[in-house]
Fold Response regulator receiver domain-containing protein.
Amino acid sequence: MNVLIIEDEQLAVYMLSQQLQRLRPDVRIIGVKDSVKSSVKWLAEHATEPDLIIMDIGLTDGDSFEIFDRIAVECPVFFLTSHEEYALKAFALKNSLGYLLKPVKKEDLASALEKFDHMKTFFNYRQRITV
């Protein structure tokens, strides 16, 4: 599974990467971006590469919701936040699978990845039916 991490706190990136590798040894971190601008640029060049994006809401140059205003993001997204008030905004996006409160607990990340697996299986199944 190819994962893009959009997070501006280096310690959070490190902790998340470690947890992902422990939970899913097959995870490949294909990029780490720390701003809206760098995320939009990366996604414009690599749109089809990530299977999943895990992104913090607050970035160095704005909030990550701005990314969706600037470029189409087609893969599933989990949001990271320290502030629960962003939850409704995160769920309003079509490809949002939910949000994780920081600091991310191992069991919460495991549940999020299980949800991703379930949704991926469901959508692959639906595509086979409609083809």
Residues 125-131 have pLDDT under 50 and may be disordered. The domain at 2-130 is CATH 3.40.50.2300 (Rossmann fold). Strands lie at 2-6, 28-33, 52-56, 58-59, 62-63, 77-81, 96-101.
